[in-house]
Design brief:
The protein is of the alpha+beta class and 360 residues long. Strand 4 and strand 5 form a beta hairpin. It is built from 13 helices and 10 strands.
């Protein structure tokens, strides 16, 4: 494996797989925050201490490899170019914080990119497991196995009363953040989302955009995650999130069915207009592309479009991000140049699907 492989393969293998309720739930993610007992937290440690932590992780990987989820490779942040880091963020493999504010950080990645372990981000270790569809319990099981492997080699910062100690007080306790990425165009089109989001917040959960805190819900894609870790068990957190997500799935399906009954021809027209824009545009901004891709994915899920894979949304939402566009171009692009290249890339990808159908 190499950095180039992670950069050049636009869509991680987990994004191409079908998972439970994948017509609405794009992915399930579990993240565990952990810290070494003997080192200050990243907000206070020295550069030398940060380097020692990376060396310890390299040694663990060498003497006690964990290969259940495939071979792991360690990449150091200070050896990655800014544009390359942006691509890794767009693929959800590293956080913006690790890319921008952690020069002495690193990441352990598995070959299929389902597992990433960020080193020296906000905490010394952040284990992340990403699974397709609604698979929170499976992702949690995987994260716990990796956690057990690391804990057999590391003494964690742990308090009998408070649980796992972390840089941010909101992560103290289990150190667990569980999140589900959902495509909710039906609730957006029927404007039900405006009353649902405040209700979700009242339950102690948070709703964010596709790239987490501070990001927009581009393409009607939302992340639903827990906000509280202290005083709750992993099972409680998972159960609470699953309860809300199950209700959202039911409400989204009801909203889609209502649209089919009351506005079928208008919805079908919207879907194919968006497909026409994507198929023929020579210039397209990221927001318009995300909106049209969302419409097309809805058209696929509702049976209006039968000759296109569901994963087209996952793939093109990543491929059309600024980092990827510039990576493929071989260097920086001005915003207008990105809009031109984005349109060309989408046309080429859709034409590829047509060619596949013609061959069949």
């Amino acid at each position: 494996m190499s950095l180039e492989r992670f950069l050049n393969q636009a869509v991680s293998s987990w994004m191409c797989a079908e998972g439970p309720d994948s017509d609405i739930v794009l992915s399930s993610r579990i993240r565990l925050a952990r810290n070494f007992y003997e080192y200050p937290f990243p907000t206070l440690f020295s550069h030398e201490e940060a380097k020692k932590i990376i060396l310890e992780m390299e040694e663990i990987l060498k003497i006690s490899p964990f290969q259940k989820f495939g071979q792991m490779e360690l990449l150091k942040i200070d050896e990655i170019q800014p544009l390359q880091k942006r691509v890794l963020v767009e693929k959800h493999l590293i956080s913006p914080h690790l890319a921008e504010d952690s020069p002495y950080g690193a990441i352990l990645l598995t070959e299929n990119e389902e597992v990433s372990i960020m080193i020296n981000e906000e905490d010394h270790i952040r284990i992340q497991c990403l699974f397709p569809g609604l698979q929170l319990s499976e992702a949690l099981d995987a994260a716990n196995e990796i956690d057990d492997w690391l804990e057999s080699n590391i003494q964690y910062a742990f308090d009998e009363k408070h649980g796992y100690l972390t840089s941010c007080p909101t992560n103290v306790g289990t150190g667990l953040r569980a999140s589900v990425m959902m495509h909710l165009p039906g609730l957006m089109l029927t404007q039900q989302i405006n009353r649902i989001i405040p209700a979700i917040h009242q339950l102690g959960l948070v709703v964010r955009g596709i790239y987490g805190e501070g990001s927009e819900a581009l393409g009607n894609i939302f992340q639903i995650s827990n906000q509280i870790t202290l005083g709750k068990s992993e099972e409680d957190i998972g159960r609470d999130l699953m309860g809300v997500v199950s209700q959202l799935i039911s409400q989204e399906r009801s909203a889609r069915e209502a649209l089919r009954k009351t506005s079928n021809i208008q919805l079908e027209d919207r879907v194919f207009r968006s497909l026409g824009v994507l198929s023929n545009s020579r210039i397209i901004e990221s927001k318009e592309a995300a909106k049209c891709l969302s419409d097309v994915r809805l058209g696929i899920d509702m049976g209006y479009i039968n000759d296109m894979p569901k994963t087209i949304l996952n793939e093109l939402m990543i491929l059309t991000q600024p980092g990827f566009l510039q990576q493929y171009a071989g260097g920086p692009l001005r915003p207008h140049e990105r809009d031109i290249r984005r349109a060309a890339l989408i046309r080429e990808r859709l034409n590829l699907e047509k060619e596949k159908i013609g061959e069949e």
